[in-house]
Design brief:
The structure holds two protein chains of two kinds. Chain A is mostly helical. Helix content of chain A is 75%, strand content 0%. In chain A, helix 3 runs antiparallel to helix 7, helix 5 crosses helix 6 and helix 6 runs parallel beside helix 9. Chain B contains eleven helices and 15 strands. The longest helix of chain B has 18 residues. The chains are: A mainly alpha, B alpha/beta. At the A-B interface, helix 1 and helix 4 of A face helix 2 and helix 3 of B.
């Protein structure tokens, strides 16, 4: 129960915060551009060859997952911890009757939940992209049946690919009070990984590589989702170790 | 009276050559308002952070109600409310929302939020976000956070820092009320004795990581009395000085007066009689008492 209450408390802290706005604006950003494009070109999901839903989702994720999504994860992983750094509230959090383990994992859980929220908004946005042009331009609905399981599988695959980024950013933001440091390192890591992705053999050691594998930009000789999970667990374990060993928790 | 906080041989250093605390043995009696005084950089915040487990204890023991802090951290912190340095608030949230966060963590009843908002006089702030509060309001909200779970001990690090006189008075009234109504032990640090001497029952003075004085306010006032002096103004200072010396009184001439150490009333009368009998004109006999602030300054020199 203590852990659940801790998560509730952490969730309340995100109300009206930058990370909250980020999930909303970030989630709807690409779908909004796609909706504007659809109305501008007068095209709908029904104009696509084959099952329109697959093409819509594939396009939406291609636009999102290469750069914008990891950027969003870099910001989300850093902004939630920044709430405590910026307001100088770590001392208050650590003087409460909670185990440090509870503090660490409740905050991390909220970062993951915020990412889920981001995914939910993105999916709502894609659904609006599919529905709004057909309703207003054609006066009907999409013809093709909605491939629920495929969409869910794709979402889960990309979410898992993002988890190492979240763990890495959480590690950085717990150890650097200056907000620019985790953001800067994350940004350089992402750009560096994108550049090196095609020609560096062991690029899978970078936490920023898994979303590129998930999109199939390079064929992997391993299961990217499995490796992403291992990367996530290893980075989280290092992060936890460093957090627990911190001498000054004020 | 039982000590609700006790430290034994507390030492702390940030680096090898930077010893911040030396053998701190604090004793905070239950139900007291303990003023923890010292100039900036004396080691007050480091001590309070160690008490709350915000810094890893390097050497020495910390006891709360005779139980070691380290082994009983969760249980101890259930009974401690704190405000360290600046107010700990989330500016994008209202006062109520801020308290709601801590209510979830402390798992206290929802009604406590309304009660605390009344106590700290923030019940009418409604939807106003805490970031738009005045410093005094932020400070009161932080005290509200510290009070939310009805702690037996309140640890407040310079809670009146940056407040104007009316803000200081408000906080003082609030703390006195809490101490009297709920018998909450309050440890309050400050670098100004004058700011808290009207509030505290006990005082601890720290400087350069060493405790220089620890005891009741009355004991500190005793030192004040001991350091008082008697002033004589006569028409012939030099001869009067010789007479006092003959009587075994260690006096000194300063400008147009002779300063003697604190004396009993009858002794002062006797000296006066002696001077008049010898034909001196005595213009003034007065007692000069050092205020507590100058004693504090002397101790921390």
């Amino acid at each position: 129960m203590t852990f659940i209450h801790a998560i509730q408390a952490e969730w309340l802290k995100t109300k009206r915060s930058a990370s909250n706005w980020l999930s909303l604006i970030g989630g709807f950003f690409i779908p909004t551009i796609m909706i504007i494009g659809a109305f501008y070109n007068g095209r709908t999901i029904n104009d696509a060859p084959g099952n329109g839903w697959n093409i819509v989702y594939s396009n939406a994720w291609q636009n999102m997952a290469v750069f914008l999504l990891p950027m969003g994860m870099i910001l989300a992983g850093s902004l939630i911890t920044q709430i405590e750094n910026k307001n100088n509230t770590w001392k208050q959090v650590h003087a409460t009757p909670q185990r440090f383990t509870t503090v660490f994992f409740s905050k991390f859980t909220v970062i993951l939940l915020m990412t889920v929220k981001f995914f939910v908004f993105f999916n709502i946005g894609v659904l609006l992209y599919a529905f709004l042009p057909t309703v207003f331009l054609e006066g009907g609905f999409p013809h093709d049946s909605f491939p629920f399981w495929d969409v869910l599988k794709l979402n889960v695959k990309i979410f898992v690919a993002c988890m190492p980024i979240l763990a890495f950013q959480y590690l950085l933001s717990l150890n650097f009070k200056n907000f620019l440091v985790p953001i800067g390192i994350g940004f350089l890591g992402l750009i560096g990984t994108m550049i090196a992705f095609t020609f560096v053999k062991h690029i899978y050691l970078s936490p920023f590589s898994f979303n590129l594998y998930a999109l199939g930009i390079k064929k992997a000789w391993f299961n990217p989702s499995f490796y992403a999970m291992i990367s996530f667990v290893v980075i989280t374990a290092i992060s936890y170790f460093l957090y627990m060993r911190k001498k000054d928790k004020g | 009276m039982m000590n609700c906080i006790e430290t034994k041989g507390l030492n702390y250093h940030f680096s090898k050559n930077d010893q911040v605390l030396n053998d701190i043995n604090l004793k905070v009696p239950e139900g007291s308002i303990f003023g923890f005084l010292g100039p900036n950089g004396a080691g007050k915040t480091t001590t309070l952070k160690l008490l709350l487990g915000l810094l890893k204890n390097q050497n020495g023991q910390i006891l709360f109600f005779e139980k070691p802090f380290q082994e009983n951290r969760i249980e101890v912190l259930k009974n401690v409310g704190s405000l360290i340095e600046s107010p700990s608030i989330y500016p994008q949230l209202t006062a109520r929302e801020n308290l709601k966060i801590w209510q979830k963590i402390y798992q206290c009843p929802n009604e406590k939020i309304d009660e605390i908002l009344e106590i700290v006089d923030l019940a009418k702030t409604g939807k106003k976000r805490a970031g738009k509060f005045s410093l005094g309001m932020k400070q009161r909200l932080s005290i509200g956070v510290a009070l939310l779970h009805d702690p037996k001990i309140l640890v407040l690090d310079e809670p009146t820092n940056g407040l104007d006189p009316s803000g200081i008075l408000e906080i003082r009234k609030l703390l006195t009320r809490i101490n009297q109504e709920k018998n909450t032990t309050i440890v309050i640090s400050s670098h100004l004795l004058s700011e808290i001497e009207k509030l505290v029952t006990h005082v601890g003075i720290i400087n350069k990581g060493n405790i220089l004085f620890q005891g009741t306010l009355a004991e500190l006032q005793d030192i004040q009395n001991q350091q008082a002096s008697v002033i004589f103004r006569t028409d012939n200072l030099k001869e009067a000085f010789v007479i006092f010396k003959e009587k075994g009184i260690d006096s000194k001439i300063e400008n147009d007066k002779i300063i003697l150490p604190s004396l009993a009333k009858d002794k002062i009368a006797e000296l006066n009689k002696e001077l008049i009998m010898r034909g001196f004109s005595v213009f003034e006999i007065s007692q000069q008492r050092n205020d507590l602030e100058s004693i504090f300054m002397d101790l921390t020199k």
